[in-house]
């Protein structure tokens, strides 16, 4: 590992860290796509949280958290997903299991909760999440859901998501299995030319931006998973001729299952940045073998790119040479971010993901700066060490990383699911560039640096 001895890294974590200028980890590349190291204080969420963030944006579904109230509050309204219809998804329902339920079982509480939603709220679709405590005490959630489905004539779908049963990626898989359980009864031979959008959660309305682009080039959107989705529209998904996968980490498994069960092929896309947005629109048209859509995609992309040229040139001079640290959920998002920063003339010196795969890290290694540090499933101590060592000017991450950036006195950009403005598409390039510039060139960082220098001088003189 070379440099790993110079920083405070657990021995078990060393193979999850790659120093690009060392040529990789002992010639074997970076270790990834595995459970977190015990005691490493991973930034990852649990299995249950992984499942919840995928299913939560379904606008008219009821979500019952079968477990302690803390599990429900932890994931309540955690995505900035927007809806064009119902806002039911922003509520959280819980069986609130207590000590006596641990001893005597919680199935009666779950049955009562489903009965209440089915009768008083006239629910059509209910997801029931099995949490850690349910996995320990052994409540038969599947049997309860099956019986209640028959009793009320509605879909009650179990989500097997005890937090200790794997990692966040396992939660994605459990959510995808729940979606497939919903769709399987609706196999259909007759197809319509159109796409399903997988892995976009309509954060700040990004699904609407993507759908608008596809409409402009003449591509029909059949269904979405799960941003701005609803029960009725999701059932149309088996009719589509192509799946496009925006968030590969959460939805490639679903795309594979849909290809097996419904014979729908898929391609991975990204609508972050000018290059990836333009490429994705053309590739979608090519995958559909729609020459007219391809021509429109090229013309539309060229037109939008031209509009952004002058705008990006104005900001590039303020950002050129600045150093960036990235820590996000999936590898595909990290790749798109590095491309955007390269386009701005910025250097990515630290980059990590929670759920990246081998092929993601190979691309990341090619795109990142020559002396970059690449991390899988990093913890705060590692991020802090390498951010300071590499002199990063800004950290791009999620809500868990924000306090770390401010503690270190550097700028921060939220690229996770709580943000309130769109970062996808050509509009997103505008928003993203402005935010990076405003954050990284805010004068307060200079005051903080000067204050630290003064404090250091006083301490050194004592």
- Main sheet: strands, sense, barrel: 6 strands, mixed
User: How does the overall form come out from the CA principal axes?
Assistant: globular
| Percent of sequence in beta strands | 5-15%
| CATH topology tier name of the largest domain | Rossmann fold
CATH architecture of the largest domain: 3-Layer(aba) Sandwich
Strand neighbour order, sheet with most strands? 1-12-11-10-13-14
Helix-strand category: alpha/beta
Number of E-state strands:
14
The CATH top-level class label of the largest domain? Alpha Beta
What percent of residues adopt helix (DSSP H or I)?
40-55%
Helical segment count? 18
User: Cα-atom Rg, whole angstroms?
Assistant: 23 Å
What's the domain count? 3
Distance between the termini: 39 Å
CATH homolog superfamily of the largest domain: Nitrogenase molybdenum iron protein domain
Low-confidence stretches: 1-5
Mean pLDDT over the full residue set: 91
Protein name: Nitrogenase iron-molybdenum cofactor biosynthesis protein NifE
Function: This protein may play a role in the biosynthesis of the prosthetic group of nitrogenase (FeMo cofactor).
GO molecular function, one term: nitrogenase activity
Pfam families: Oxidored_nitro
């Amino acid at each position: 590992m070379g440099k790993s001895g110079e920083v405070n890294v657990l021995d078990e974590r060393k193979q999850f860290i790659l120093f690009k200028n060392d040529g990789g980890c002992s010639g074997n590349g970076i270790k990834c796509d595995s459970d977190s190291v015990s005691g490493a204080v991973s930034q990852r969420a649990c299995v249950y949280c992984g499942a919840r963030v995928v299913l939560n944006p379904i606008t008219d579904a009821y979500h019952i958290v079968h477990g302690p109230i803390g599990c429900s509050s932890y994931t309540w309204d955690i995505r900035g997903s927007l809806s064009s219809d119902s806002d039911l998804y922003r509520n959280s329902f819980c069986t609130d299991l207590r000590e006596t339920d641990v001893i005597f079982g919680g199935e009666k509480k779950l049955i009562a909760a489903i009965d209440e939603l089915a009768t008083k709220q006239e629910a059509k679709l209910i997801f029931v999440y099995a949490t850690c405590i349910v996995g320990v005490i052994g409540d038969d959630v599947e049997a309860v859901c099956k019986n209640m489905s028959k009793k009320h004539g509605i879909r009650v779908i179990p989500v097997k998501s005890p937090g200790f049963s794997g990692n966040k990626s396992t939660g994605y898989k459990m959510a995808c299995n729940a979606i497939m359980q919903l769709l399987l009864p609706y196999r259909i031979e007759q197809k319509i030319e159109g796409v399903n959008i997988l892995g976009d959660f309509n954060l700040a309305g990004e699904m609407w931006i993507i759908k608008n682009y596809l409409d402009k080039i003449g591509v029909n959107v059949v269904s979405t998973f799960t941003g701005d989705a609803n029960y009725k529209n999701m059932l149309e998904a088996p009719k589509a001729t192509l799946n496009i996968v925006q968030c590969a980490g959460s939805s490639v498994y679903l795309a594979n299952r849909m290809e097996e069960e419904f014979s729908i092929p898929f391609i991975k896309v990204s609508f972050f940045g000018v290059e990836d947005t333009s490429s994705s629109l053309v590739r979608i048209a090519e995958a559909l073998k729609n020459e007219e859509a391809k021509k429109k995609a090229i013309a539309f992309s060229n037109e939008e790119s031209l509009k952004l040229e002058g705008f990006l040139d104005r900001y590039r001079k303020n950002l050129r040479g600045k150093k960036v640290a990235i820590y996000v959920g999936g590898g595909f998002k990290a790749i798109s971010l590095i491309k955007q920063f390269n386009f701005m003339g910025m250097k990515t010196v630290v980059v990590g993901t929670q759920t990246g795969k081998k092929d993601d890290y190979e691309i990341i290694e090619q795109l990142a700066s020559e002396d970059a540090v690449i991390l899988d499933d990093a913890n705060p101590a590692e991020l802090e060490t390498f951010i300071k060592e590499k002199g990063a000017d800004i950290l791009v991450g999620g809500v868990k990383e924000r306090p770390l950036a401010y503690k270190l006195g550097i700028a921060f950009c939220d690229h996770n699911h709580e943000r309130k403005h769109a970062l996808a598409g050509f509009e997103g390039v505008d928003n993203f560039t402005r935010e990076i510039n405003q954050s990284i060139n805010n004068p307060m960082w200079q005051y903080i640096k000067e204050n630290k220098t003064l404090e250091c001088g006083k301490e050194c003189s004592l």
